[in-house]
Amino acid sequence: MKHLNLKSMALGAVLSLGVVTPSLAQECIAPANPGGGWDFTCRSISKIMYDIGVVDNPVQVTNMAGGGGGLAYSLVVNERNDDPNLIVAASSATATRLAQNAYAGMTYDQVRFLGAIGVDAGIIAVAADSPYQTLNDLLDAVIADPSSITFAGGSAAGGFDHLKVLMALKRVGLEDIRTVKYIGVDGGGDAVTQAIGGFVQAVTGDISEVVGFIKSGDVRVLAVFTEERLPGEFNNIPTAREQGIDVIAGNWRGLYVPKDISDADYQRWSDALQAVADSDEWAASMEANGLTEFNFVGDEFQTYVADLMEEIATLSREIGVIQ
Q: Which domains does the chain show, CATH number per domain?
């Protein structure tokens, strides 16, 4: 298996984007194409930072897809490791990829995780005209003929979106998870368009990635991986548990910063992120996008990420994703 030269890819991306390193402007990198969860994180959090006055100027959002988030991670570690004006969108998917050594040997402690301020409910969805009406309908089809169903997700193979599908299928008795067909694309928005276009039969991702497609009538969510139904306009979506599939899978939404920035700059960004978490604007954004509260900002979050990675690595070994 060939390994991506992420450092070279990152440098090439910087040159093609015309970005000066380090950047003098405040910037949020979304490590995927527009429309996915990382893009949502950057755009919503940075906008609120400006709206509530914790940053003086609008934060530039840069989409940098590649390597399941590894391209952006490599850029930060190798090229912008002391840039005090840079924040990067992160999630449970970031921790998953790091736990599985998917970023070419890079480790979680090469950056500083800033915090997370919301949990994005995991989902499985299909195109509106799909014949599959329930989660069990879809999973039964996989059991009957694994080659007939392809899932698309915004994480790479073996990533968090992929793991959600495998956990659900293990619950209904699929023994050989290697038969499950999954393709990873650069962001949840791309995954949804694969389903709408008929190229795959189902999407695995997070609720924020499909909100616009739900409202446009293009997709139907078969299940959310939460303990209880989501509030408000998403309350009509059944949980996986209601359908006999005991899987809880939430994707926290947060940020990391370069490792070598000063403690003062780390605190500045921590205070800004906490201010967003405490704002009415963020509460409204969470409700509109189906997120639930998860407020964990500051140095202790780095320890949380390390513990989460250990848990993910254990699960990944159990299901055969890594050795």
A: 6-119+251-318 (3.40.190.150), 121-243 (3.40.190.10)
